[in-house]
Amino acid sequence: MKKALIFSASFLMLLILIAMIPIPKATLENMEKVKGLVGDIYTSGANHIIVKLVDDDSYYYISKNGDRGIDYTTLKQKLLYHDVEIGYVKNWSIFGNISNMKPVCLVEKENKIVFTSLQD
After folding, report:
1. What is 25-116's CATH superfamily?
2. Could you state, in order of their start, the residue ranges of all structural domains in the chain?
3. pLDDT > 90: what percent of the chain?
4. Is residue 87 over pLDDT 60?
5. Would you say the C-alpha torsion 29, 92, 37, 43 has a positive or negative sign?
6. What is the pTM of this model?
7. Distances in Å between the alpha carbon of 66 and those of 5, 26, 51, 86, 117?
């Protein structure tokens, strides 16, 4: 019984550690893109802007950590109800793609960059 409990606890700890693997730096090589019509933009706490595309279950979030000169009001005015292309970081997880939260590293509207956090 004690061995089973230790094994279960160890396995759970391993899963938690793997799930906490940080999101890799945003580069062209580890980015996927999606196109769509922006149906909603809102803030989540002080550090995230959430972009929701029409007919898409994912939530695309822009981290305001480090500021990057991002302004929620301006972004909302530029993007809401417009077609955009969003680049997000591919993020592997042992749990598969169960999370519908995608970290945004690029937003383009009419082939012009509106936001980028891509690393060289």
Report:
1. Nucleic acid-binding proteins (2.40.50.140)
2. 25-116
3. 36
4. yes
5. negative
6. 0.74
7. 43, 15, 19, 20, 10
